[in-house]
Model the fold of this input.
Amino acid sequence: MSYGRSGDDSREEELGSLTQSARRTSLRQARIILLVIGGLNFVCGLSLFPFVETLVKQQIDEEKKKAGPGMVFDEAKVKEVHDAQVRTLHIVLAGAAIVGLVFIGLGIAVYKAPVACTVTGLVLYLGLQAIGIAVDPAELVRGLLIKIIFIVALIKAVQAAVAYEREVKAERHARSRRDEFESGDREEPLNF
Done:
């Protein structure tokens, strides 16, 4: 009979430590992905902001050309459409920058709340893609490979976060039981 830990327990702790290390690596990757998605959204949103007027003007000029050379346009209506499109694009780009900041915040907080941050990131990313496809169906195939990589990586990050939190909870439980045994509140089971 022996009291205390056996050699098997220490090997299990080593294996547990290795799995936790692998999960921490997955959380680090999740953090990087969330920060990259956030950074891209933020930078794109802000960098396109100054060019909105020019982009809208180019789009309106193209529509005028498509209408034909003899077509006459009410310039007041054209100005109205121009201003409405500029406002809409400013709102969309500001929203992209804000969403980018949310992703960055999730990336920063991923170690404090792994499951919440990774699930929120995945849902937010999928939601943004759905909105993009609803607005422009061609968005489905634009950057498809990168989108698939981000989605798969976020799904793996969620899985790693769930396993990481489960392992941390089990470790805390084992530590509290060990502390109870060491304090003499209970007898430690015998290992044969």
